[in-house]
Amino acid sequence: MLGETTVPALVPRVEVEVTEAFGRLLHGMRSYRAGKAPHILLSRGTIPELSGSEQSEAEQLRLLALESGILEAMFYLEAESGNTRENALYSARIMEGWENALLVTSVFHMLRAAGTFRAQGVDFVAALTDVRSPIAHLLPGI
């Protein structure tokens, strides 16, 4: 599951907050709970100069998912990436040996994400969220 969905817990916020792309985490958790995936890989680092926080977005997403009752052992974290290409590169290393995966991201982001993950040799099914785009019908999803 790709990031760009949280805002760190910095003053005046006391907890991690979400953006309009939070559907990514919701869809990832729902897919996991439906038995479509045995684990959840959360992919996104941080750019402290932009976010103001050293905490990776993968960690922020993990905290939110734990609040919803998903067990700690179900997560893999890729906490170094700063862009989609790095999401794919670093996630592919974690996923080495996996037969396949769901690639969870927003419709508007899927074309770029799919290309970068394919370039890394990752076999996946597109798991689209935030389906508000006029191009949504062009992308295979679940």
Q: What is the fold's blueprint, element by element?
A:
Layout: E1 6-7, E2 17-18, H1 23-33, E3 40-43, H2 48-51, H3 57-67, E4 75-78, H4 84-94, E5 101-106, H5 107-119, E6 124-129
Parallel strand pairs: 3-4, 5-6
Antiparallel strand pairs: 1-2
Helix pairs in contact: 4-5
Would you kindly provide a written description of the structure presented here, covering whatever features stand out?
This protein is an alpha/beta fold and 142 residues long. The chain has helices at residues 23-33, 48-51, 57-67, 84-94, 107-119; strands at residues 6-7, 17-18, 40-43, 75-78, 101-106, 124-129. A two-stranded antiparallel sheet has the order 1-2. It has a two-stranded parallel sheet with strand order 3-4. The protein is globular and about 40 Å long. The model has no long low-confidence stretch (mean pLDDT 88).
- Measured on Cα atoms, how large is the radius of gyration? 14 Å
* N-to-C span: 14 Å
Largest sheet: 2 strands, antiparallel
Helix percent reads: 25-40%
Taken as a percent bin, the fraction of beta residues is: 15-25%
Class per helix and strand makeup: alpha/beta
Instruction: Summarize the helix and strand pattern as letters.
Output: EEHEHHEHEHE
Sheet with most strands: strand arrangement: 1-2
**Quantity of strands, as a count:** 6
Give the overall silhouette: globular
Count of folded domains: 1
Overall pLDDT metric: 88
User: Low-confidence runs (pLDDT<50, min 5 residues)?
Assistant: none
Produce a short descriptive summary:
By secondary structure, the chain is of the alpha/beta class.
